[in-house]
Amino acid sequence: xxxxxxxxxxxxxxxxxxxxxxxxxxxxxxxxxxxxxxxxxxxxxxxxxxxxxxxxxxxxxxxxxxxxxxxxxxxxxxxxxxxxxxxxxxxxxxxxxxxxxxxxxxxxxxxxxxxxxxxxxxxxxxxxxxxxxxxxxxxxxxxxxxxxxxxxxxxxxxxxxxxxxxxxxxxxxxxxxxxxxxxxxxxxxxxxxxxxxxxxxxxxxxxxxxxxxxxxxxxxxxxxxxxxxxxxxxxxxxxxxxxxxxxxxxxxxxxxxxxxxxxxxxxxxxxxxxxxxxxxxxxxxxxxxxxxxxxxxxxxxxxxxxxxxxxxxxxxxxxxxxxxxxxxxxxxxxxxxxxxxxxxxxxxxxxxxxxxxxxxxxxxxxxxxxxxxxxxxxxxxxxxxxxxxxxxxxxxxxxxxxxxxxxxxx
Amino acid sequence: xxxxxxxxxxxxxxxxxxxxxxxxxxxxxxxxxxxxxxxxxxxxxxxxxxxxxxxxxxxxxxxxxxxxxxxxxxxxxxxxxxxxxxxxxxxxxxxxxxxxxxxxxxxxxxxxxxxxxxxxxxxxxxxxxxxxxxxxxxxxxxxxxxxxxxxxxxxxxxxxxxxxxxxxxxxxxxxxxxxxxxxxxxxxxxxxxxxxxxxxxxxxxxxxxxxxxxxxxxxxxxxxxxxxxxxxxxxxxxxxxxxxxxxxxxxxxxxxxxxxxxxxxxxxxxxxxxxxxxxxxxxxxxxxxxxxxxxxxx
Lengths: 410, 298
Fold this sequence. Notes:
The complex is a heterodimer. Chain A is of the alpha/beta class. Chain A has two domains: 3-24 and 50-253, 3-Layer(aba) Sandwich (Rossmann fold); 256-393, abc- transporter (atp binding component) like domain (Coagulation Factor XIII, Chain A, domain 1). Chain A is 25% helix and 33% strand. The longest helix of chain A is centred in the middle third of the chain and has 16 residues, at 191-206. Mean pLDDT of chain A is 82; it is low at 18-23 and 40-46. The radius of gyration of chain B is 25 Å and the shape is globular. Chain B is mainly alpha-helical.
């Protein structure tokens, strides 16, 4: 089959200086220019340090293929998508696209708050590259899909954020590209909305569209893509079957600082080395059956003794929904003083989470002061169950006790 | 029981490759090359996005006076007030000679063309930054933005022109057939505005200094153009230098188109057309050269 996307030795270099110095002014450029005139050109200034966001990236995607691009924050995934969607230009290499391209890097960019829903459908549709008659043709379908109803003639600034996203997405969903580029858009909104997004992507798949999906949500990557490209530090670290790629990624992404964690004064009194999950007997694994107990272990190094710490293990679903927290405070558990190297372990009750991908993060606080000492995102694990899927069964499932009273209600 | 649950449990996402595409032949091919290469001017790409151009123009028009009590009356009020102030100060107090025409008409005819020009340049040169969100997230030929912002002030221009004609009737001045010359004059002015913006816009993306310099520049440019005074008061010795300002020829021509009177200086007009074409042509090359880096630095 012919190639829909051919990426050849793509590199993207960003210049650090203009970003880093913040003072992005003409004055600086003028001074630089003047300096350049006065001194010999070759030694005028040391070549500014370039940062390669992507380097030597090559791959081909066939028509009808669905490929996920995975990688940590800042690995270059979004940059890659920007190059393929022509928003930014590569520094080296070339890209060839065969087919009509639709890129959704963000739902609703280009909406104008002062305009009505109706006007915005035409505006946003045109921005996405649809022709006017095409939008007019699909107008009713778009409105219906969005469930906006009579609000369609109201300025979108009066919309709730949910309505706003729904309308924007409906427009995008009616763009019928040969090649669809998606960046994290499936990660916004609530679960029903995500489901709708995934359904939309499936519909395109069934029509034979090529989909390139950048996502942190391993669940959607898994359900939508048969192949993944794992980008690590701007290079292709893996390109192949999804399961294998996710395995590589999970092994690498296993430990990261929580993005919101800012240690006071940059000082880490205690550092979490890693967080691992294992079954009840202590054998490490990442695939759990519904209802299994889990042993979570955090290895730490404390540079100063922490007496009676408040430790929290949180389980977060792939769509960033916090599912549960295990806390030494609520469990009234008194841990030993943390000092030197050691481990903190938790044996969970049977986990009745529905089938999805989850991650465990750990937070250590100082008891009493409640000062944040450490926060890390650790192990990922999957829960398997043929039936209990989150979109039908919610967050957890435990059987209840049912009775039906045959006596007629009077 | 299990069966029904299975049916409930999702339309099991097991699927392979999508079916073969129906018509793989007619698909458009896009080649993306590195940004250090000179790319030919992509007129076809801009044409393909003409729908977006139109929608952006409409959006600007719809949004401009939305949620204002007076609405489109502003398009009438603004030039009227400017004409009134200029008439009082320059016409009555300073008694600037106008080659015979009533001062209000003399100034008004120039003000409406100037306002169009200044508005176009102001919106167009800063338009890229205003649309930064779009540029960061969506691909389209960036030229669409300055194009749209040069066209949309034409509506205000048309309204102001209508007001001007009414004003002329009040003064008992009838427009002659010369008025058809207003169309090519406006066209060249639009070219000039676009040319200037194609240079200033990309610079403004990199250096926001442009935004701060612009009001100042426009004001100086206004006094360097025969708006409140007639070009005839400029001493002959510096006349040629004065005519290098492309707005001189255009304003004179426009005034002639509306009010008649002395035939405009053809030399100045030729300079206007040449400078406008030159700025537009070089501007297009410059813009095209810069536009691929907009998303990185905006």
